[in-house]
Amino acid sequence: MRVLGVDPGLTRCGLGVVDGGRGRELACIAVGVARTPPEDELASRLRSVADVVEQWMDEHRPEVVAIERVFSQHNVRTVMGTAQVSGVVALAAARRNLPVAFHTPSEVKAAVSGSGRADKRQVALMITKILGLAATPKPADAADALALAVCHLWRAPMAARLAVAEARAAELARNHRARLKAAQQATRARTGGISR
């Protein structure tokens, strides 16, 4: 499976493409950053990010896009910009019928480092080791994008199995409720609606 990981940001949007094979086999296909000047208008910046992301999607043909889920920060402007870029990326993926998965920063950190509290340096070092890279991707946004892709590759099989199990459990619960209701109706019919 090929995953495009996206660490959304207006000034720097990290992009990383990783192929996952059997087990935990991984290969880094591409890594980079889409940059926009802070002094440009918001619409222009979003269009610039969208252009780069769409170019990556067309060039690398991912099967899924993994985006970092926006979380509350103290700087509302940063959160808004990150959310807007996430929306632009999700839209670009939807236009190509690509599934989109959102992962929280702590999920990504835990997946690649074993700790949901790892700092950016630890994540960058681990992703360098996991992917067998000659050098640590810079800036940190690029390493984070690769970590998102790896997180999705490692979590997706378990998430799929969990979704199947949840669907099966819901189906069993529906069937049980239907049998229970039918039994109650049969009992009422036999007793003429008299409850004891």
UniProtKB/TrEMBL annotation:
InterPro entries assigned to the protein according to its UniProt record, in alphabetical order: RNaseH-like_sf, RNaseH_sf, X-over_junc_endoDNase_Mg_BS, X-over_junc_endoDNase_RuvC
Gene Ontology biological-process entries: DNA recombination; DNA repair
Catalytic reaction(s) noted: Endonucleolytic cleavage at a junction such as a reciprocal single-stranded crossover between two homologous DNA duplexes (Holliday junction)
The protein's Enzyme Commission number: 3.1.21.10
Catalytic center residues: 7, 68, 141
PROSITE patterns referenced in this protein's UniProt entry, alphabetically: RUVC
Pfam families: RuvC (PF02075)
GO molecular function ontology, one term from the record: magnesium ion binding
Enzyme class, broadest EC rank: hydrolase
Binding annotation for Mg(2+) 2: 68
Cofactors that this protein relies on: Mg(2+)
Binding site for Mg(2+) 1: 7, 141
Subcellular location, principal: cytoplasm
A Gene Ontology term for the protein's cellular component: Holliday junction resolvase complex
Record key words, sorted: Cytoplasm, DNA damage, DNA recombination, DNA repair, DNA-binding, Endonuclease, Hydrolase, Magnesium, Metal-binding, Nuclease
Note on cofactor: Binds 2 Mg(2+) ion per subunit.
Subcellular location: Cytoplasm
Function: The RuvA-RuvB-RuvC complex processes Holliday junction (HJ) DNA during genetic recombination and DNA repair. Endonuclease that resolves HJ intermediates. Cleaves cruciform DNA by making single-stranded nicks across the HJ at symmetrical positions within the homologous arms, yielding a 5'-phosphate and a 3'-hydroxyl group; requires a central core of homology in the junction. The consensus cleavage sequence is 5'-(A/T)TT(C/G)-3'. Cleavage occurs on the 3'-side of the TT dinucleotide at the point of strand exchange.
Record note on quaternary structure: Homodimer which binds Holliday junction (HJ) DNA. The HJ becomes 2-fold symmetrical on binding to RuvC with unstacked arms; it has a different conformation from HJ DNA in complex with RuvA. In the full resolvosome a probable DNA-RuvA(4)-RuvB(12)-RuvC(2) complex forms which resolves the HJ.
Record-linked HAMAP family: RuvC (MF_00034)
Family, per entry: Belongs to the RuvC family.
Name of the protein described by the UniProt record: Crossover junction endodeoxyribonuclease RuvC
Name of the gene this protein is made from: ruvC
